[in-house]
Amino acid sequence: xxxxxxxxxxxxxxxxxxxxxxxxxxxxxxTIKKYLNSGTVEPxxxxxxxxxKLDPFADxxxxxxxxxxxxxxxxxxxxxxxxxxxxxxxxxxSYGRVAAFARAWRADRQRExxxxxxxxxxxxxxxxxxxxQFDWSEDYAVLGGERTKLQVAHIKLSHSRAFxxxxxxxxxxxxxxxxxxxxFRVLGGVPERGIYDNMxxxxxxxxxxxxxxxxxxxxxxxxxxxxxxxFCNPAAGWEKGQVEKNVQDARPRLWQPIPDxxxxxxxNDWLEQRCKELWxxxxxxxxxxxxxxxxxxxxxxxxxxxxxxxxxxxLSKRVSPTCxxxxxxxxxxxxxxxxxxxxxxxxxxxxxxxxxEGQILCEHARRIDRSHQLPPRTVYDWRHYxxxxxxxxxxxxxxxxxxxxxxxxxxxxxxMLRRPGGDREMVDILALVLHHDEQAVLxxxxxxxxxxxxxxxxxxxxxxxxxxxxxxxxxxxxTPQALALRREPKANVGxxxxxxxxxxxxxxxx
Length: 510
Description:
Layout: H1 2-12, H2 18-25, H3 29-38, H4 58-69, H5 79-88, H6 95-116, E1 131-143, E2 146-157, E3 163-168, H7 173-187, E4 193-196, E5 203-206, E6 212-214, H8 216-225, E7 228-231, H9 241-255, E8 260-261, H10 264-281, H11 291-298, E9 313-318, E10 324-327, E11 330-333, E12 342-347, E13 351-356, E14 359-365, E15 377-379, H12 386-391, H13 407-416, H14 422-430, H15 438-451, H16 456-468, H17 494-504
Parallel strand pairs: 1-4, 1-8, 4-7, 11-15
Antiparallel strand pairs: 1-2, 2-3, 5-6, 9-12, 10-11, 12-13, 13-14
């Protein structure tokens, strides 16, 4: 290019003849004439077309690339596999030739998409209070010293772009309902409609076009909070691009470095506080000010949040003869009066409620164990088995539910089981919690142990004193001198006989 500039300067500026230019540059006169007559400012070199070893396989490789592009990222064959398949068909070229062909094919495909409309988009705008967008993602955190895989819910207002991120262990209906409640609570209201992808917890069947068979429990939640659900086209995540971008931005903001908390509740408290701090830091982009400024203005357009939706999933269970039901590889105890009977299990994100015959029987904290390497666990409530041990007191000695008795009951049991009939007395004492406050019974047991009289009668005596408001360890009373005894009373049974003589004629009843 520099030599071409020298030739043009000699001919056009210095007006030198072609012969002189050829003498100075060493080029032939025909070459100099060709450059000057073409009028180009930079040289162009023609690349001769040479046949490639890949030419006979070009159509086959292009077809494979098109097929692989339609698959998910994890299911696609790598280029090394495609090269090996071509070699099996007789290709003798290198892997680099296949990679170069694939790069060129992808570049052509991208240009085609950008010109056919699939790769170009129309910018969207939302009025205040019009819509929110919802999505899930997968991230990791250290909970209680163990690295845990989390299902993270993202909910974002489309106008102000205020958002909330909340973590769960599962991506089920009850978690979805809980995420909406906390999202509306933190965002301060409910927009008119929500934008979702076709997640299984919301859509039972995808029809033609925008036709959807919406899950009944999800629809009940939408009716409760009074918003209209709207679902994107399949594989069209850009239709809710704001929350998709929020998923991408949340990883460096919240999950790197990996957060470390004692439990999931502490992590969610931190996530909620951190999201509110980010509202103050992130500029809105389209409106003046930060996300927090736009959110404050949008509050007036949001519907006030109604009471929380009772977002449980109801399952039918049958209680086993050992008074247990099974859920998620964990067994939970049920009152013994419902053994071998059907009950209703209501599943919440953090607890399980067992109901039957229109009443709540019991409640357990929910245990979620994602590891299949550990054996199934059992959660007992020893109170559920009191009706059984009243008929079978011998089961108290080795009963698994009673291994978790409070320490006061355990100490009393150790002493009572050493003497005959002690198991029956211990069952009677434990059964007191069915009619009295458990803490009062436990206090009576501890006082009896402290006094060294670990008997059923003494425990009942102390319990009645506690219930009546009487105590054994009350303050000492300083008796006045006027109340001091001057003559000690003496026992005289004869006085009793004198009284009987007046009433019965002096005869004993014999």
